[in-house]
């Protein structure tokens, strides 16, 4: 376990990290050059694969520092970095055996890159972490067979960042032992050896994107790929040579710990969105502070920043970003000790992290869009930073789509409302508006008369009220946390 860094050591690390990323973060590079830059950064050891456990504050700070470069250079390298450190090797750290975690040192020393193969064409994060890819154990050969080939290719892994260059892959697949499904588990596999795909693995390009084309995104198929028994990340689940499955920790499902990457990812995505937004505002304000315009009623000159709507927007953005930074920072502060101890966040913190991700991203999108409308032709300039705004679009669906997270919030609140109504409990102070929206939804859904299909249709018809309820829940969560802190 690493010792806490002193303030001086942390300042030296930050300077070294800033210098290193300035050399490699450039959207004009090809994805091969960008990947080579990450290999160089990995081998430098400035960010260790174990920092997510040992120095989580440094892990989050690295993401924030990288996000500042996304304004001028797009999101490609930031995504490449978080896929490698958080999703791929963060999963090994979370659910790997001591030997598997130790193997990350070899990957770091040789600059091996990793990808995270969860999302599929017809399943993935938005479907509740369902996967159709199957990994079956064969006791005769003491190996697994990994496959997602089917008539529709619906189980092909889709939009896998770093999929064209990764040496290692953490693959989420349904583990089948003795003909019985054991649910989604994580497998660490060689995807390439000496730069060549291993037998049975094939990839294809997802195509040109509106931003981040220095990042490769691939679909991946597995056709009867043989994996050794040691490929199963086995801190919490184990398959014996004879084909006996057992969980090694009571009460902890492997997929619960894999889900940890969504919590750390959501905090990192929220911070990246806020950092991007604040940087874009800072850069734009420097321009508008220096841009002369005729003053009203005289011959002297004013600056573009003095226009009332722009002046008001700058003040609004500063207040909004300060509040969101404080809220997301509180989530990070509560998550850090759990990461150090390898613990799962309690339900309330998991909810707050979801709120942080949604509100930080959505508010950043709104503020950046408003700013774009107020600065005229400047927003069209290639070096203004506005051309990379689709980074925020990527943040919107990364680590759990904002709309999907809001639907869960609304459903959870409806369950609480049903229980409280049954008990005859009045709404708690400050929750009267939520209770009224819940009552409105309950009345609309009552027409289904217990028919689940009809209830689902009515729920869809009430989508505006559903999202209004989620907004109310998020507003209350933020207000409470900020008041307490």
Outline of the structure:
With 485 residues, the chain is α+β, with helices and mostly antiparallel strands. It folds into four domains: 7-109; 114-255, Beta Barrel (Butyryl-CoA Dehydrogenase, subunit A, domain 2); 259-395, Butyryl-CoA Dehydrogenase, subunit A, domain 3; 405-484, no CATH class.
Uncertain stretches of 5 or more adjacent residues: none
Instruction: Give the rounded overall mean pLDDT.
Output: 92
Distance between the termini: 30 Å
Percent of sequence in beta strands: 5-15%
Extended strand count:
15
Using the coordinates above, name the CATH class of the largest domain: Mainly Beta
The largest sheet, given as strand count, sense and whether it forms a barrel, is: 6 strands, mixed
CATH fold category name of the largest domain: Butyryl-CoA Dehydrogenase, subunit A, domain 2
List the helices and strands and how they pair.
Blueprint: H1 7-24, H2 31-44, H3 51-54, H4 56-73, H5 76-95, H6 98-109, E1 114-117, E2 134-138, E3 143-147, E4 157-161, E5 168-177, E6 180-190, E7 192-193, E8 196-197, E9 201-205, E10 217-222, E11 225-228, E12 237-239, E13 245-247, H7 254-258, H8 260-290, E14 292-294, E15 301-303, H9 308-341, H10 347-374, H11 390-397, H12 402-423, H13 432-445, H14 452-461, H15 463-484
Parallel strand pairs: 1-5, 2-5
Antiparallel strand pairs: 2-3, 3-11, 4-10, 5-6, 7-8, 9-10, 12-13, 14-15
Helix pairs in contact: 1-2, 1-4, 4-5, 4-8, 5-8, 8-9, 8-10, 9-10, 10-11, 10-12, 12-15, 13-15
